[in-house]
């Protein structure tokens, strides 16, 4: 059996103890008799075997020499509205007499006895027991000091018992699953085109006149028997002229479509049920 730190054991203690004042334990100030502020709550200690809460760790800061001391949980009266812990019957001077707390590993039986001695003296009509008179190191039980270690009752005695159950909370994560790259490439091929072309050629036809043609009146025609050009004719031909021209062959639209599907997931959830047991079997319980 050992005492362990609340904050060290439950780093996420604010969520773990969200239903009670322990979730904001380090926001409470501690006041002794006479409304004297003696420090603020820094941490808590509980029994690692039974889970019972035993002490609040009080940082006295600049109020009392800057040391940390232990406050038995049974003496802490929580005022949640003002975030105060009142310690009735304890004076500022008695807080000064409390042994210095240096970590849960340093809290042994002797340290706790010194702490209990101060609080027993603070209680009216009680004094610190002598070692060996009523119990020993091996026989001591926290039940002997119930007023020091019993958790204080809240002012609301009709506070309900909370029964919890777990529920599945559905959520979605969006993750990238791939890339689609769309590009163009140029392919070449040999194309054939037929173009009819025309070529002119000169045709010379010779013929013999059907009737005799003689010079008129015995005269010789002009330009007869002259050398040189007697006619000119222009000759043309067509040649094929092939050029390339780009035009829109096809249009492509790129878009995304979302398809929906239902995914079923299973998990085991827990639920608390209330068990009511009448020990003697005769007590009437109105459910």
From TrEMBL:
Domain PRC-barrel: residue ranges: 23-89
List the InterPro entries hit by this protein, alphabetically.
Answer: Bac_photo_RC_H_C (IPR014747), DUF2382 (IPR019060), PRC-brl_dom (IPR027275), PRC_barrel-like_sf (IPR011033), Stress_Response_Assoc (IPR052967)
Locate the region Disordered: 258-287
**Gene Ontology BP, a term:** photosynthesis, light reaction
Originating species: Phormidesmis priestleyi
Q: Which residues form the DUF2382 domain?
A: 161-276
Q: Name one GO cellular component term.
A: plasma membrane light-harvesting complex
Origin superkingdom: Bacteria
Query: PANTHER family from the xrefs?
Result: STRESS RESPONSE PROTEIN YSNF (PTHR38463:SF1)
Offer one Pfam family short name for this entry: PRC
Q: What is this protein called?
A: Photosystem reaction center subunit H
